[in-house]
TrEMBL record:
The lineage of its organism: Bacteria, Pseudomonadati, Pseudomonadota, Gammaproteobacteria, Oceanospirillales. Residues 181-309 form the Type II secretion system protein GspF domain. Coiled coil: none annotated. It comes from the Bacteria. This is Type II secretion system F family protein. The keyword rRNA-binding does not apply.
Length: 325
């Protein structure tokens, strides 16, 4: 008890000193900021750690739930919310489902969740802005404009995200296809069948090209479930939407139809794809000179003219001013 009393007295004496109080507050703020930065660093490191991502993916596949518990929770309350905003036309819904599959979202409730997120982003920021009007003291006209602008931006933001996700996933699939073709050629020439070769290539591409590996894994699961190779290839073409994969599927279907060698067909298509990539690279290289014209004119030439013509102009101005006097 005496020790506690002495500590209380020392604490009261320290609180009466303003300098000690300021020093303690500064120390606590510094400790809080350091803890916050450390927590953010650990969170970011855990989110982007490839080993953790791979382990999480394996746990999800072992559990048999491709969407995960977090996605299931979103489906429970965003799905019914999006059903009210979903269009009645089956064509519009099927087009959205196809676009979501291009982005890698193939769950049954993906379209409903998309519309639910769109409705939530349109309503929630506008509601928060309406609640903040008394505190911000914004003029009514400006406040209404902000509410309408936030609602429109929240409604259009999921569409922008979807287009960006489709473009990014398409680029990743096209980037991994040449490696997959080379491996398919090697596996086919080694004696493996088409399904076995695709499954082996899918296992080899899990680290370097996980998006393409997922699509090939799904092809393997469909064939193991009883779907024939042609239907599985058609489904691979439809759910990816990549032109190069569409050409590969068409080539393989023609090879199956006419009974030609699949290994030779894959080798020829790999050479054609390599030539196509070379032509695209040459086309982009030819456009560089035209694209560099505008930065040269608006960014480099003005500074060059200032450096090159500035001193002579200043000398001429001095000479003219001296001659005038």
């Amino acid at each position: 008890m005496e020790t506690i009393g002495r500590l209380m007295q020392g604490l009261n004496g320290a609180l009466q000193d303003p300098q000690l109080v300021q020093l303690g507050v500064a120390a606590l703020m510094g400790l809080a900021i350091f803890t916050l930065l450390l927590a953010l660093m650990l969170v970011v490191k855990g989110m982007f750690d490839p080993m953790r991502q791979r382990l999480r993916k394996l746990e999800t596949n072992a559990a048999g739930a491709s969407a995960g518990s977090g996605s299931a929770g979103m489906d429970q309350w965003l799905g019914p919310l999006g059903e009210r905003l979903a269009p009645d036309k089956a064509e519009t819904r099927s087009r959205l489902v196809r676009e979501l599959s291009y982005a890698g979202k193939r769950s049954a409730s993906a379209a409903s969740v998309f519309y639910g997120i769109r409705l939530m982003l349109a309503v929630l920021p506008a509601t928060l802005m309406l609640l903040a009007f008394p505190l911000l003291r914004i003029p009514p006209a400006l406040g209404i404009s902000l509410v309408v602008g936030l609602a429109i931006a929240g409604y259009l933001l999921p569409r922008f995200w979807l287009e960006r996700a489709i473009k990014q996933r398409t680029t990743l699939l096209r980037r991994g296809l040449p490696d997959a073709l080379d491996l398919l050629v090697v596996c086919s020439e080694a004696g493996l069948g088409l399904v076995a070769a695709i499954q082996r290539v899918a296992r080899d591409l899990e680290v370097s090209h996980p998006e393409l590996a997922d699509e090939l894994h799904l092809f393997g699961m469909q064939t193991r479930a009883g779907m024939d190779n042609k239907s599985a290839l058609r489904d691979l073409e439809e759910r990816t939407g990549v032109e190069d994969i569409r050409g590969l599927v068409t080539t393989l279907l023609q090879s199956m139809r006419f009974g030609t060698s699949i290994a030779q067909t894959l080798r020829l298509y790999a050479e054609e794809l390599r030539d196509k990539r070379t032509q695209e690279a040459e086309e982009k290289a030819a456009k560089v000179s035209t694209k560099m014209l505008f930065p040269l004119i608006f960014c480099i030439f003005p500074s060059f003219f200032v450096v090159a013509l500035g001193p002579p102009l200043l000398g001429a101005l001095r000479a003219l001013s001296a001659a005038g006097h």
